[in-house]
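Kindly go through one protein, given below as sequence and tokens. The question is how this chain folds according to its tokens.

***
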Amino acid sequence: MDFITINLIGLAAMLLLLALGVPIGFTMGMVGLVGSAVMIGIEPSLSMLGQTAFETVVTDDLSVVPLFILMGYFATSSGLSEALFRAFNTWMGHFRGGLALATIGACGGFAAICGSSLATAATMTQVALPEMRRYGYDERLATGAIAAGGTIGILIPPSVILVLYGILTETPIGQLFAAGIIPGLLTVAGFMVTISIVTRINPELGPRGERSMIREKLAALSSVGLTLALFLLVIGGIYTGAFTPTEAAGIGAIGTFVLALLARRMTPKVLLSCLVDTVKTTAMIFTILIGAIMLNKFLTLGGLAGELGEIVVGLNASKLLTMIVILLIYFVLGCALDALAMILLTIPIFFPIVVALGFDPIWFGVIVVMVVELGLISPPIGMNVFVIKGMAPDIRLSQIYRGVIPFVIAQILLIAILMAVPKLATWLPSTM
């Protein structure tokens, strides 16, 4: 049996295991181990597994992951989300759909500290949904804005997914962070424009709030000044080369801890909870990552990824059509799988094809994240939709899905713009 056939059988077995409910990290690891054992023997395969697990845990580059995760948990516990929401509401609350606009702005600000879409959606559900209900907002707009705003968490740096993408593809993490800034800001602006359009068509969806005095606006701005300064310090330091992404993560974690202390939210119990949650999340991510690396090595040994790349290039199909097909696959998978797991699962297969076609790896990383964002709010699954449903069980699922439709359309347009103008993602990294 040739190695390509073994690769194909391994992928089929992986899909079967996933359908049976086996956790994705163990699935990829088992397929990689057993498949490699068939090709090179059990002892070399076990040695490869041990070496992969050891190197993944001790490598300096990956220490950025638990630090950014800890930074996110500190941010969640420190009340930054409430402060950001109040600040944006003070400045934008008097517009139609002002609370929804504030939700998107707060999600963008919180994403700059948290880096998780599901955590952003869950946090903003607690903060923004009660306020929008109190002011008579339609449930469709309220939940749609929260679900869509939550997706920004994995695009605006720091993003754990971009970190892992960079490690798997050997793409500079600092450049990936820089590449996510402009598309992230465009996403925030695009969602705000969407809210303005739907509330202009139907003003009852989101009524205007009261206009705040200038002194109230300045006070609200000052309340999030330290958060903004921390973000500029972390990202600016990476951009200028003042410190590495790992050093930036450490500074960010310390900074959010200090902000939590200043907000009088950091009790010993909260600190312990943040540390324990960070350990759990990091263990989950590393398990998936080790499995993905084993799968990658299995596919490399078998030569399937390279063969697929040669086949795609040999078809002489247009690069644009090929990329659209790849992104459609990501979109479909993103509707049903966790974003992190899905990207780690597919990068070993698709990245060699993308490189063979001559696409920029940095641009590809950003646009894949944007497509995954789209999957997080798209029927029939949409992970962010179910997060909101779980936290607000009295709201019908159909209402949430109806609410996200305008944002799905907006995200598709944003992806099309980024495909048409790749420099939106590649220009800022090129200046580093």
